[in-house]
Amino acid sequence: MNIDNLPLFFTFHTPKINDCVELTAEESRHCLKTLRLRKGDFIGLSDGKGAFFVCLIDGVVESRCIVTVKNLYETQAVSPKIRVASALTKNAARMEFFLEKAVEVGIASFTPLKCKHSERSHFNKKRFEKIAISALKQSRNLFLPEIDDITDFHVFLKNHKETDALKLLAHKETDAPLLKELSPNKPEIIVLIGPEGGFSDEEIQEAKKLGYLVISLGKNRLRTETAALFAVINLK
User: Fold this and answer.
1) 20-32: per-residue pLDDT in tens?
2) Measured between alpha carbons, how far is 55 from 1 in angstroms, rounded to an integer?
């Protein structure tokens, strides 16, 4: 059986071999109505933690698809783990686009930041999670990133004060090293992306004191979501 050809679905639980799994209502509709799969067909199932479960459709109970886990394939996360913390854009769709592409490329977590110059101070976490799951299934990247609640910039710095990660802050400074010229040697990288108005001087100085390296993404002025995606791609 070529598992690459199996349609991939998502589960919030981590089953074991021979376990029965009930797909969510949304996944069941996609499986039974859209793809018209039936009892006896095989599907793939991901828990977002690196596992690929080969499952057999056993039947339908009250419009829910019931499957049995027949086999398991595990993959290892690719180093480094990239954690993106970014201000949100005024247009929510732009950050949704970033998240979709970042999941396809591979990130470990995403934290929306509330900065001094932020244009947006709230977001729909459930929608972001739904977009991330959809991108996981489309790209067959078996690792779902953690999506945090919106976090104040200063609180984020405090929460990650003791981490041994390589900590980067993207800002256009004339003497800042270019991101693409770095040779990261840490298993974990945190990159901070500011709002359209940039980080405030106070925010930059606070981050520097806590070990963040200010880096430049290049000579062009990038939008927030472009800067975040550019950073992810260049750190992979």
Assistant:
1) 999 999 999 999 9
2) 12
Q: Which is higher by pLDDT, 204 or 121?
A: 204
Query: Could you give the 3-state DSSP secondary structure of residue 138?
Result: helix
State the pairing for strand pair 166-170/8-10.
Answer: unpaired
Query: Rounded to whole angstroms, how far apart are CA atoms 131 and 127?
Result: 6
The CATH 3.40.1280.10 domain(s) of the chain lie at 81-235
Closest CA to 146 of 183, 190, 185: 190
Phi, psi of 54 (to 5 degrees): -90, 125
Question: What's the mean per-residue pLDDT of the chain?
Answer: 94
Is the separation of the CB atoms in 128 and 150 below 8 Å?
no
CATH number for the segment(s) 81-235: 3.40.1280.10
Q: Cis omega (within 30 of 0) on the bond before 80? A: yes
What pLDDT, in 10s, does the model give residues 58-77? 999 889 999 999 999 998 88
Q: Are the beta carbons of 82 and 236 closer than 8 angstroms?
A: yes
| Separation CA 155–CA 178 (nearest Å) | 27
Ranges assigned E (strand) in 149-211: 151-152, 166-170, 188-193
The answer to pTM > 0.90 is yes
